[in-house]
Specification:
elongated, about 80 residues, mainly alpha, 2 domains
Length: about 80
């Protein structure tokens, strides 16, 4: 997501001919978007995205279990 943000900023600077970016080639200005596409492709192909989603789901599930145990008065065992 950082690459998309950087790409938008560079794109706006090039379009408005602001600062040093006005002198750059369009290839350099648009390269962060290509980097973002490559990153998303790698993240999906390697399973990184799914693994992070599963970790977040497990964390939410464990918090819900702990909250319910506290609500019924059971002690939470040390981990």
């Amino acid at each position: 997501m950082y690459l998309v943000g950087i790409g938008v900023i560079l794109l706006l600077m090039k379009w408005q001919e602001y600062g040093f970016v006005a002198e750059w080639s369009w290839w350099w200005v648009l390269s962060p978007f290509a980097g973002a596409v490559l990153w998303w492709w790698w993240a999906d192909a390697s399973g990184y995205t799914k693994r992070k989603a599963m970790e977040q789901e497990n964390e939410v599930r464990q918090k819900r279990i702990d909250r319910n145990r506290e609500a019924i008065g059971r002690r939470i065992r040390g981990r």
